[in-house]
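Hey, resending since the last one bounced:
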Amino acid sequence: MIEVKNLFKSFEDKEVLKDISTVFEDGKTNLIIGQSGSGKTVLMKNLVGLLDPTSGQILYDGRDFVQMSKNEKVHMRREMGMIFQSAALFDSLTVLENVMFPLDMFSSMNLKERTQRAMDCLDRVNLVGAEQKYPGEISGGMQKRVAIARAIALNPKYLFCDEPNSGLDPKTSLVIDDLLHSITREFNMTTIINTHDMNSVMGIGENIIFIYEGHKEWQGVSADIMGSTNKRLTDFIFASDLLKEMREAVTNKG
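The structure tokens again:
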């Protein structure tokens, strides 16, 4: 579990995060949503230590990440997995070598053990048979699955995903969502997903935090959204005419 308490972040005289307090739960897909410029990316960067908050606490199972020394944060990051928006694979390495990279860097396993662990992760994301291909030889969806395999290679307690469905078609996005959701449950991870994808919000949003102009405007689960009276939330979620019609149909039916 990750607890955020009274988190503020400013850049010079501009306050970007304003007194955010929330909890990201174990074994659930926790989603951060909000308009561009709302502060959600800054929030995630604070969570993983790429930025330091102006004030506040970030507690990883009771451990205050903000107050840790540089060396303590390095060790803490070994408990974290990261999936970047662009997949961020190494073009010059094979799929297998990409997944083995964190194991080569941080594990004490021998080569045979590291190879087996990487193959197990590729099997988990249904990519056995692609291990000797290079990133340029596989599809965007497969690249994202490689990124997931790499992110779970060290068996992290916390998984961070920055726009994991960016650039993917709707069908492939659903595959990635289902994979992230099932892995989260299987390994009881605290998974935090920064997303604009409304399919993800409605499909796997077990704990959703809506950020508006730097503060936490709303928190709940996907089932609560249809009946929400928070206008800022509904204006954001139901921005398209089709989604508005779906919401009205559900509301009228009720």
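The chain has a mean pLDDT of 91.

Sorry for the duplicate.
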